[in-house]
Automatic annotation (TrEMBL), chain A:
Pfam families (UniProt xref): BPD_transp_1
Protein name, entry field: Putrescine ABC transporter permease
Lipid bilayer topology: Multi-pass membrane protein
Location of the protein in the cell: Cell membrane
Keyword match Transport: yes
Keywords, comma-separated and alphabetical: Cell membrane, Membrane, Transmembrane, Transmembrane helix, Transport
Lineage: Bacteria, Pseudomonadati, Pseudomonadota, Alphaproteobacteria, Rhodospirillales
GO biological process: transmembrane transport
Tree of life domain: Bacteria
ABC transmembrane type-1 domain residues: 96-302
Family of the protein in this entry: Belongs to the binding-protein-dependent transport system permease family. CysTW subfamily.
Gene3D superfamilies cross-referenced by the UniProt entry: MetI-like (1.10.3720.10)
Transmembrane segments: 27-48, 93-118, 130-152, 159-176, 182-204, 225-250, 281-302
Native organism: Pararhodospirillum oryzae
InterPro entries listed in its UniProt record: MetI-like, MetI-like_sf
TrEMBL record, chain B:
Keyword Nuclease recorded: no
Protein name as catalogued: Putrescine ABC transporter permease PotI
Residue ranges crossing the lipid bilayer per the database entry: 9-33, 62-87, 99-123, 143-161, 182-201, 240-261
PANTHER family reported for this sequence: PUTRESCINE TRANSPORT SYSTEM PERMEASE PROTEIN POTI
Provenance organism: Pararhodospirillum oryzae
UniProt KW Transport keyword: yes
ABC transmembrane type-1 domain span: 63-259
């Protein structure tokens, strides 16, 4: 008569196990979620908050937005002066425009160098392909600072390139590449080229070669086939690669500092100077907020591509 | 495949591209063996700059700090990044998934000056409110590094988890193994090469970071990139060339090890698959 008992016991054990499994899943989500909320998202709220504070001498070097007056009233003081300064002082506007121009130009150069490389690697036979990919990834693993430094030694007035050109008699005055926008362009393209090649390679490798054969069979010239078939199909890779280069390049500090001139003002450098030289945290925060506003559209585009990539992959699997 | 080799344009593009990527590094390595102090004049082969490196207390101290931070960062970021990747790939929809995936991909492109400033403001506010972390130093650098390295590990692990053949896990599940046991006995060994790759990636990213560390470091916690940077600002020096060469060799060995692990893993699984087919 007590036959149902084990069934219900097993049922209960199963229920408990499912509950445990569900709470385990929640834990796996909650730990990284909580970490990123606290250490990645919350800091941006603080940047926004402090950009409305005023500079003062002390620790911390900014005023409180929320204060209690004598009558225990809450008083919120928002200082817009930091943002007014962005508009009034031309230095900031020039720095923003410089950053966009230099980052945009470098992204274009990286695309022009990276696309043929990615295409060649994607079309290579399997053996060489692995080696070529390895060679693309390797510089990414070696120190970024060291790679920029390598160019400092090459491009300086008394650097290797000038020494070689002078001794060959091609030039009689050292070229001032380091210390100009061209130095920064070279530095950015050199440092970020792997980021351009990898997403391009990923889309080009998936490209069905039979589409190109069909175009060829129908009498399409190779260049026309490239422009009408390959290029449109590789657009997600082009956009992802360009965003991966453009967004960090806008805020780049190390490259303009080491390879640019004293007058190559990019916004990352302005933020750095406001913070480390002037110790003006509120203005540095306002510079960061304006930079983020400029970058929101490209960042959203990049994230959209990232999130579209993931489900497409799982759906493609049987 | 001969058509690939015959395509002059593609071969030229590859040759030019790789020359651009590698010639500066080769010259840097070459000149680290230069006997003279002048970087443009070759004054005979010498390893004396490597010897000087060993006596540079400041560099050695900074390298030790950086190594400690990098090991801690890599270990924490690998765990957090793997959890995040599992959440994204395995658990379907959950509340806040869009926000979560946004916070996982934003650090990949966020300009470092912004992340650095933001992290610093957080640590300062936390210290005022909670009294922790006390001042800034190794702990704050480590926390900031874990945060952005987690995003990189999550990318690597998501790709691996999506490509993974789940039939072995399902078989284990059918035979009555619990999810946690399946994870530790089946999943972890299968994704082990990706775990190693994620760990090494975090390790190198942390070891390499200058900007974020400069914002959140304290008076007695200058990392290796910070010391190198202040020395580079003064000009090119053969000692830094020697240090750079060592770092490049270290990175090459590390990535070659990862590549070897992955190739071995692939061969093993194809052999297993062939064995299963033969049965």
């Amino acid at each position: 008569m007590n036959a149902p008992a084990p069934v219900s016991l097993r049922h209960r054990v199963n229920q408990a196990r499912l509950r445990l499994q569900a709470s385990g899943q929640r834990l796996v989500i909650a730990v990284p979620f909580g970490w990123l909320l606290l250490f990645f998202l919350l800091p941006f709220a603080l940047v926004l908050k402090i950009s409305f504070a005023e500079f003062r001498i002390g620790i911390p070097p900014f005023t409180d937005l929320v204060t209690f007056t004598d009558q225990a009233y809450l008083r919120v003081t928002l200082a817009f002066s930091n943002y007014l300064r962005m508009v009034e002082d031309r230095q900031y506007l020039v720095a923003y425009l410089n950053s966009l121009r230099i980052a945009g130009g470098s992204t274009l150069i990286a695309l022009l160098i990276g696309y043929p490389m990615a295409y060649a690697i994607a079309r290579a036979p399997k053996g060489p392909r692995a080696v070529l990919l390895f060679l693309v990834v390797l510089p990414f693993w070696t120190s970024f600072l060291i790679r920029v430094y390598a160019w400092v030694g090459l491009l300086k007035g008394n650097g290797l390139i000038n020494a070689a050109l002078l001794s060959l008699g091609i030039i009689d005055q050292p070229l001032l590449i380091a210390g100009s926008d061209w130095g920064v362009h070279i530095g950015i393209v050199y440092s970020y080229l792997p980021f351009m090649i990898l997403p391009l390679y990923a889309t080009l490798e998936k490209l069905d070669p039979s589409l190109l054969e069909a175009a060829h069979d129908l009498g399409c010239r190779p260049w026309k086939a490239f422009l009408t078939v390959t290029l449109p199909l590789s657009m997600p890779g082009v956009i992802a690669g360009c965003m991966l280069v453009f967004i960090p390049a806008v805020g780049e500090f190390v490259i303009p500092e080491l390879l640019g001139g004293a007058d190559t003002f990019m916004i990352g450098r302005v933020l750095w100077n406001e913070f480390f030289l002037n110790r003006d945290w509120p203005v540095a925060s306002a510079v960061a907020v304006v930079m983020l506003v400029l970058l929101v559209a490209p960042i959203m585009l990049f994230q959209h591509l990232q999130s579209r990539e993931a489900p497409a992959k799982t759906e493609a699997r049987p | 495949m001969t058509s690939w080799r015959r395509n002059g344009f593609l071969i030229t593009a590859l040759g030019f591209g790789f020359a651009f990527l590698y010639v500066p590094i080769f010259l840097l390595i070459l000149y680290s063996f230069n006997g003279g102090r002048l970087v443009t004049v070759w004054a005979g082969f010498s390893t004396k700059w490597y010897g000087e490196l060993l006596h540079n207390e400041q560099l050695l101290g900074a390298a030790w700090i950086s190594l400690r931070i990098a090991v801690t960062t890599a270990s924490f970021a690998t765990v957090l990044g793997t959890m995040a990747a599992l959440a994204m790939v395995r658990f379907g929809r959950f509340g806040g998934r869009t926000l979560f995936s946004g916070m996982l991909s934003a650090p990949l492109v966020m300009p470092e000056v912004i992340t650095g400033l933001a992290s610093l403001l957080l640590f300062v506010s936390m210290e005022r409110l909670l009294g922790w972390p006390e001042g800034r130093g190794v702990t704050t650098i480590t926390i900031a590094h874990i945060t952005f390295c987690t995003a990189y590990v999550a990318v690597v692990m998501q790709a691996r988890l999506q490509d993974m053949d789940r039939s072995i896990e399902e078989a284990a599940m059918d035979l009555g193994a619990r999810p946690l046991k399946v994870f530790f006995v089946i999943t972890i060994p299968v994704i082990a090469p990706a775990l190693v790759a994620g760990w090494l990636l975090s390790f190198t990213l942390s070891l390499d970071d200058l900007v974020i560390a400069s914002f959140v470091s304290g008076p007695a916690s200058s990392t290796l990139p910070m010391v190198v940077f202040s020395s580079i600002r003064l000009g090119v020096s053969p000692e830094i060339n020697a240090l750079a060469t060592l770092l490049v060799v270290l990175a090459t060995v590390a990535i070659a090890a990862v590549g070897w692990l992955q190739v071995r893993q692939e061969r093993l699984s194809t052999r297993l698959a062939q064995g299963a087919d033969a049965d």
